[in-house]
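Module 6 notes. Inverse folding takes a fixed backbone as the condition and produces residue identities as the prediction. Think of it as a translation problem where the source language is geometry and the target language is the twenty amino acids. Below is one complete input and output pair. Work through it position by position during the lab.
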């Protein structure tokens, strides 16, 4: 794990699908009085297409390029943001470098069965913005977990296991671990 570094002033949440990055991130941003940016939402806003549509028409590699462009642009912002980075944001080495240069990178982690329970039902129907786990979410999530665990660990300075925690508990842990003070 890396100590917090200087660079972009952001707090970035990383972790697999279903760990609560967007929900937690939005609420932390509100508490801190910071702006919030979700990379999938930003891709959606910039391209006018959903994540699923981009995967289906242009493929994953194109999606990863747009995702990189969004992260790189976000890291240029000088006002502090809470950023919910989508699950695959740690895949590209250049993204990992951008993350390591951010003030805080927090890995939201959870055991696989917890994630499958949270997002599996919808994904099994091929629904939502997670085409990588269509069909057999448990098996696919397991593969992603194995492939990515060391990458989440590599970029993050703080790890929070969200199993059994309510959103408020996760927020409290983030504030304690970062030493950031809520202003609401
Ligand atoms: C992905 C995670 C998704 C979305 C896309 C790919 C991944 O975002 O970007 O389906 O590779 O882990 P969430 O982590 O917000 O679900």
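Target side of the pair, the amino acids:
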């Amino acid at each position: 794990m890396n100590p917090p570094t200087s660079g972009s002033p952001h707090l970035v949440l990383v972790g697999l699908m279903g760990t609560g990055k967007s929900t937690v991130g939005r609420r932390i941003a509100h508490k801190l009085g910071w702006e919030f940016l979700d990379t999938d939402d930003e891709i959606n806003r910039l391209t006018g297409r959903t994540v699923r549509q981009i995967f289906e028409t242009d493929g994953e590699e194109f999606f990863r390029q747009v995702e990189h462009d969004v992260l790189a642009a976000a890291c240029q912002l000088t006002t502090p943001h809470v950023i919910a980075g989508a699950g695959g944001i740690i895949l590209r080495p250049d993204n990992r470098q951008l993350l390591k240069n951010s003030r805080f990178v927090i890995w939201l982690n959870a055991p696989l069965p917890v994630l499958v329970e949270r997002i599996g039902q919808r994904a099994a129907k091929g629904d939502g913005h997670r085409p990588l786990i269509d069909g057999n979410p448990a098996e696919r999530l397991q593969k992603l977990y194995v492939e990515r665990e060391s990458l989440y660990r590599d970029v993050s300075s703080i790890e929070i296991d969200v199993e059994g925690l309510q959103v408020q508990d996760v927020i409290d842990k983030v504030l304690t671990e970062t030493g950031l003070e809520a202003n609401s």
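Reference fact for the lab report: The beta strands are 8-14, 35-38, 81-84, 102-109, 158-161.
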